[in-house]
Amino acid sequence: EALTRHTLPLWARVVSAWLGLETPKAAMGMLLAGKVGRRAGFFAARAAEAEAQAELLRRVSFALWVGDHNQYVGALQGMLLERLVAAFKYGVGLDAAAPTRHVVQVQALQCTRVLAVRVASEHLTALWPVAMAELQRVFLSPATAQPPLLLAACQLVDTLLAVLPDDFSPFGWMFVPSSLAAAAAAARPAPPGALD
User: Fold this and answer.
1) Does the global pTM surpass 0.85?
2) Span 167-179, pLDDT tens digits
3) How many alpha carbons fall within 13 Å on the CB side of residue 133?
4) d(CA 162, CA 94)
5) DSSP state of 92
6) Which of 73, 83, 153, 186 stands the most exposed, by the fewest C-beta atoms within 10 Å?
7) What is the DSSP-derived secondary structure letter of residue 121?
8) Which DSSP state fits 191?
9) Rounded to an integer, what distance in angstroms lies between the CA atom of residue 42 and that of residue 27?
10) What is the rounded distance in angstroms from the CA atom of residue 33 to the CA atom of residue 74?
11) How far is CA 145 from CA 102, 137, 150, 192, in A?
C-alpha cells in the first residue's frame, strides 16, 4: 500500500519494530549499507547515483524519526556523520546548477533537521561545524543555489532556532540578524542612486 497520511503511523511502527530487532548500531549499518548507484550510461549513472544517495538519506531520516530519542547515538560517530559529510560534499566538482547535486544535499539538510529533533544536542557537537559550513555555502551564494536547497537550508535554520536555541545561538548570528542590527539597517537611508 502507498505511504499516505493514514498509513504513515502504521509504517512507522513496522520500521521501528524491524530496526528494533538489531542493535541500534547494526540497524543503522544495515540502512547505510544499502545499494547505492546503478550502472547505466555515464550521465544516466550520475543521476541514478544521486537519486539513490538521496533515497538512502530519506530512509535514514525516517528511521531516525520513528526510533526512540537518542536510539542511534552509537551510530553517529563513524557511520552517520561520515555519510552526512559525504552528502554535503556530493558533486562538489560539478556545476553548482547541476540538478543531480542539490538532490543529495537537500536530503542531507533534512536528515540534519531530524537529528536535531531526535538526538540530544550534546551528541551533535561534531555535526555543527560541518552543518554550519554547508549553510554558509548555501546562503553566501543564493543566486547559484537551487530553490529546494535554499528552502531546506532555511528549514534547518528555523528548526535549529526553535528546537535548540541555546546550542544554536553561537551560530545564529550568521543567519539571523539581531533586532538591533535589523533596526539600524532599516533606519539607514538608501545610498544616492539606489532608487533610480
Assistant:
1) no
2) 877 777 777 776 6
3) 9
4) 34
5) T
6) 186
7) G
8) P
9) 32
10) 16
11) 8, 9, 6, 31
- Residue 20, classed as helix, strand or coil, is helix
What tens digit of pLDDT does each residue of 15-42 get? Answer: 878 777 777 777 777 777 764 444 444 5
Crossing angle of the two packed helices 165-172 and 147-163, in degrees rounded to 10 = 130
The span from the CA of 59 to the CA of 34, in Å, is: 10
State the cell numbers at 72.
542511534
3-state secondary structure (DSSP) of residue 104 = helix
> Which letter, b or e, does each residue of 76-106 get, where b requires 16 or more Cβ atoms within 10 Å of its Cβ?
beebbbebbbebbebbeeeeeeeebbbbbbb
Q: For 179, list phi and psi in degrees, rounded to 5.
A: -65, -30
Task: Measure Cα distances from 127 to 87, 101, 110, 137, 152 in Å.
Answer: 13, 21, 13, 16, 17
**DSSP string covering 42-82:** HHHHHHHHHHHHHHHHHHHHHHHHHSPTTTTGGGIIIIIHH
Around Cβ 119, how many Cβ atoms within 10 Å? Answer: 20
Cell digits of residue 82: 561520515
